């Protein structure tokens, strides 16, 4: 018979099953009273002492389960402390003082302090395992909070809250991300950079309401154009891009859920949403799970673009030695069309894991019994989301970014407008601005000199910087456009030369060894709503 162990084994599941079968058989054979000889036989069979087997039999009678036979492991019971109380208290004090602080020192350094302190008191130094056990006895959340470990705190924070919708467009989530692929120039096909995409998604049906792709960083214009795409019918948009797939989403959202970025917190954005009866819901700070629907959609779309040439993947480890810039092949327009197909032809048609149905099937189910709101005027809706500033109306028009604008409709307000007027503008095209008259109506104003080309705000800023660098303290409007035109010519010429050099390099004959002979052969629909006055240039800011 084996010597009796100080404690029972803690077997794995297979061993516990073997013990259960042997003990159950023993009790079946001796239901009234166990015989010592029979107990000894089973103990020998299981490889335990007689006393251990009696303890296992008692536990089995109490639970009648295999799990009841999974006893504690060998050694001291968990939580047993054998150190002197003074020594134990010293170790805990050093951990509290040296380890649990925002600088988050490594435990190895703290352990050295513990060993030095114990030697100063004439005590033997504790082992690493002993010191670490004192650390682990402190609640994990307390350790994370004291050390300021945001990642650990987030991992231990429950996230039961989420936004739940009961009807389509009740809640639409919107967010930006940089696309994991590099696009190329349409003329030279040279790599440019990664574009940005703004996505809007209906929470109930998981349908993508709309998106906007741009090389510019996210801004209020991106949001406005994304919402324009989301709210209105997409038939003509898809026909222009030769996308033959259904995308029936349209209508004003009841609530728009966004993060706390400055573009979503701007006064112009809040006022535009309020103007159209759209409630704004901002994501609680530090709780990204409240935006989980749109985040998962972004992850799905980025996973799809990783199949494209020029992808940057999600991180450098995934990319490895892949040269994204050299492999880039798609222009911004081609990428936009590809994403349109991916959303309408793949994402909407596949079974969604959260819905267990395709998103488009869920949308169709609710579509017939839903009454979606639409803006009265498409152009006015878009203008509402443009950035804004205030300017004085002068006798020669509106001076905006060193450019003069005029509209005949402003003539009646010259000398009568009190204070500054609200200006709405598109940073991508400064050829026109939208001025709110004292009556509350907006009017479109254009360059006083209509011969000037349309320029972007970035080009205007670059031209002004160039002129200031030349010592021109008074900015000349004509010189701004002349500088911009010359800069464009330089850029275009450089692009053509680069493309030509690339073509010449590709056309060079192959260099062969000496012993070998021969060789080897912007579109906005400005239509008025029905009932609008024919030929009217103005509209009211509701």
Explain how this protein is built.
With 542 residues, the chain is α+β, with helices and mostly antiparallel strands. The chain folds into 4 domains: 13-69; 85-156, Orthogonal Bundle (Arc Repressor Mutant, subunit A), CATH 1.10.10.60; 172-367, Ribonuclease H-like superfamily/Ribonuclease H (Nucleotidyltransferase, domain 5, 2-Layer Sandwich); 387-505 and 524-542, no CATH class. 41% of the residues lie in helices and 12% in strands. It contains 19 helices and 13 strands. The chain has helices at residues 13-29, 36-46, 50-63, 85-99, 107-120, 128-136, 140-147, 150-156, 220-231, 235-240, 267-275, 292-305, 316-319, 324-327, 332-347, 359-367, 378-384, 457-469, 477-507, and strands spanning 172-178, 196-202, 208-214, 255-258, 279-282, 388-391, 393-394, 397-400, 403-406, 421-426, 429-436, 441-447, 538-540. The strands form 2 sheets. Strands 6, 7, 8, 9, 10, 11, 12 and 13 form an 8-stranded antiparallel beta sheet that branches. A 5-stranded mixed beta sheet has the order 3-2-1-4-5, with helices on both faces. Strand 11 and strand 12 (441-447) form a beta hairpin. The model is unreliable at 1-11, 516-521 and 528-542 (pLDDT under 50).
Topology:
Blueprint: H1 13-29, H2 36-46, H3 50-63, H4 85-99, H5 107-120, H6 128-136, H7 140-147, H8 150-156, E1 172-178, E2 196-202, E3 208-214, H9 220-231, H10 235-240, E4 255-258, H11 267-275, E5 279-282, H12 292-305, H13 316-319, H14 324-327, H15 332-347, H16 359-367, H17 378-384, E6 388-391, E7 393-394, E8 397-400, E9 403-406, E10 421-426, E11 429-436, E12 441-447, H18 457-469, H19 477-507, E13 538-540
Parallel strand pairs: 1-4, 4-5
Antiparallel strand pairs: 1-2, 2-3, 6-10, 7-8, 8-9, 9-12, 10-11, 11-12, 12-13
Helix pairs in contact: 1-2, 2-3, 4-5, 9-17, 18-19
